User: Which sequence fits this backbone?
């Protein structure tokens, strides 16, 4: 009986992440197709439309938006919808949370040495954290709270979307060779994931 249960759990561990990932990707593709396909059919003749063209068009649009955002005026224009959402109660929290998650997972605004080990005071225990702010950043609320030798470090929690942001002296941190997205995956999985160490060669 124990062998059956262990086999079941092992099978679930293999199949569930695969199924969930495929379903999320499928939902995203279906959503893009259902929203953009009618627009493309208006521009093109309906008989010219091939399934998948909406997804390709979406990727092209994202690329063009990202490229045009290099210019300040265009970037201001693309940021306008987000600024409007940030003024709407409820939408502000959802949009802000999604934006922060995407920025963290993509490594945006993080320096190469942003993943650190934080040593707890009067203890040999160290926690993996991600440096989110340093002192001296103009017009940044968090940065103004920091002294010259302080860092704001986000400490993610295992099997949770939460965590803590702590302000610590630089002397209590030690840089480690890891990307922010890798650190999040490692900590959130409690170290049980299969993230490989970087190639030292």
Assistant:
């Amino acid at each position: 009986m124990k062998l059956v249960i262990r086999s079941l759990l092992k099978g679930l561990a293999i199949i569930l992440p695969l199924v969930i990932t495929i379903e999320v990707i499928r939902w995203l593709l279906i959503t893009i197709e259902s929203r953009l396909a009618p627009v493309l059919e208006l521009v093109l003749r309906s008989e010219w439309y091939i399934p998948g063209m909406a997804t390709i068009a979406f990727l092209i649009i994202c690329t063009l938006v990202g490229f045009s955002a290099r210019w300040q005026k265009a970037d201001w224009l693309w940021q306008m919808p987000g600024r409007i959402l940030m003024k709407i109660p409820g939408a502000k929290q959802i949009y802000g949370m999604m934006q922060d998650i995407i920025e963290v997972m993509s490594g945006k605004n993080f320096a190469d040495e942003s993943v650190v080990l934080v040593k707890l005071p009067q203890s040999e225990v160290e926690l993996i954290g991600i440096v989110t702010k340093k002192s001296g950043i103009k017009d940044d609320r968090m940065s103004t709270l920091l002294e010259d030798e302080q860092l704001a470090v986000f400490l993610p929690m295992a099997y949770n979307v939460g965590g803590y942001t702590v302000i610590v002296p630089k002397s209590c941190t030690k840089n480690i060779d890891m990307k922010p997205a890798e650190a999040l995956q490692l900590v959130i999985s409690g170290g049980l994931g299969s993230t490989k160490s970087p190639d030292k060669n």
About this structure: Strands lie at 115-119, 126-134, 150-156, 163-169, 173-175. The mean pLDDT is 79. The domain at 115-188 is CATH 2.30.30 (SH3 type barrels.).
